[in-house]
C-alpha cells in the first residue's frame, strides 16, 4: 500500500506525466486537442470550426491586436521597473500571456462583464481601464483603483478563484434580468450580455471553481470560464494540480471544454468569440483552457530560478506570442518597418505616462476608508473615526503627511 506521490511539490514530474497518461488510458480519453491557427513559424493554419471566426479579423484588427500586445508588454516592463525603484509595493508580471489576454479581451463586447484575477493587465487594456489607475492598488494607495461600472471590468481579486463564483452569480443575474424584461415587455439593454471569469491553473484546484461550474451548468448561465494555464502556480507545476488536461474537466460538468494555444492571439480571439456567442445564445457555459506560459516571475517577490529550469523558459520563449504575429504581418505584406516603429514609440509614450502618473499618485486621507465602509453613517464607524481623530491629533506639529494618514508608508505582500 502507499500512495506514490512526489516527495516534494518540485519532484517527480516524470511520475506525474506517467500518472496523467495512465489516467487517460484508463478513461479512454484522447489527449486534449489544441486549437492553433497561427503557429510559432508565423504560418496560418485551418480549423473547421474556428477559421470562419478568424477570418472576421481584418488586417487592421490584427495590427491592432499586435499593437495591444506590444503596449501591454511595454507596460509590464515599466511597472516592473517602478516596483524595483520602490514606487510600487509589488508587481505581477504578465509577459508571455499577452495573446491569451488581448485575444480574449478583444473578443468581448462592451455589454459583457469581466471578472479578472490579479494578472489580467492585458484584458484591462482591452476594456479601456486607465493603466495608471490600475497601478493604484500595487502602490498601496487604493483597495481597487478604478470604477468597474465604467468598463464592466471588475476589480482585481487576490483571493484565488473567488471571482469565479461572483461571475456565475452575475451571469445568473443577467438571466433573471432578461426574464423580467421579457415578462414586462420593456427592452433590456444588457440582453445579450455574457460574462468571462478568468482564473489560473493553480486556482482550478479551489473548491470555488468546482462550485461555480456546477451552478453555471445547472442554470445554463451565460459565462465563459477562461483558465490561463501558464504552467505554474507560484512554484507548483500544473501537473500537480491535475491528472488530465484542464479543458477535459468541463465534460464532468456537462459543457464544452476547449484547449487553445494561448500564445496564438488569432486562435484565442476566435475561440473566445465562439464561446461568448454560445453563452449569449442561451446554450450555457464554456471552459477555455489557454495553454500558455508565465515567462517571468510569479511576482516581483518571487525567484523562479529556485524551482524551474531555464531550458523550459527558453522553449516557451521560442513560442512568443508577438513574434509570430510580426512574422505573419510582414510575410503577408500587412505591416512594414514604419508600423513596428510606431508601435514601439506608442509603447514608450504609454510607459512615460504611467511613470509620470504613478509618481503623482498621492497617499489618500485614511478618513476616506471610514467614509466608504458603509453606504450610510454607522455608529461604530463614527466611534472608530473619533478614536482615530484623537490619535492623529497626537501627531500635531509633525510632518503633515504623517498626521493626515496616522500611519507609516504602506507595505504590501502577496
Ligand atoms: C485562496 C488563496 N490561497 C492562496 C493564495 C496565495 N497565492 C497567490 S497566487 C497563488 C498561485 C496561483 O496560481 P494560478 O492560479 O496558476 O495563477 P497564476 O498566478 O499562475 O496566474 C497562490 C497560491 C491566495 N491568493 N488565495
Ligand atoms: Mg498559473
Task: Report the bound ligands by name, code or SMILES.
Answer: thiamine diphosphate, magnesium ion
Structural class: alpha/beta
The SSE order reads HEHHHEHHHHHEHEEEHHEHEHHHHHH
Mean pLDDT: 90
Strand content: 5-15%
Main sheet makeup: 6 strands, parallel
Please identify the top-level CATH class of the largest domain.
Alpha Beta
The figure for the number of domains is 2
Enumerate the spans where pLDDT stays under 50 for 5 or more consecutive residues.
Answer: 8-13, 406-414
Radius of gyration: 23 Å
Distance between the termini: 39 Å
What's the helical proportion of residues? 40-55%
Can you put this structure into words, describing what you see?
Helices cover 49% and strands 8% of the residues. α3 packs parallel to α16 (337-360) and α9 (162-184) runs parallel beside α10. The chain is built from 19 helices and eight strands. The radius of gyration is 23 Å and the shape is globular. With 414 residues, the chain is α/β, with parallel strands linked by helices. The chain has a six-stranded parallel sheet with strand order 1-7-8-4-3-2, with helices on both faces. The chain folds into two domains: 13-360, Rossmann fold (3-Layer(aba) Sandwich); 367-405, no CATH class. Magnesium ion (MG) is lined by residues 200-202, 230, 232-233.
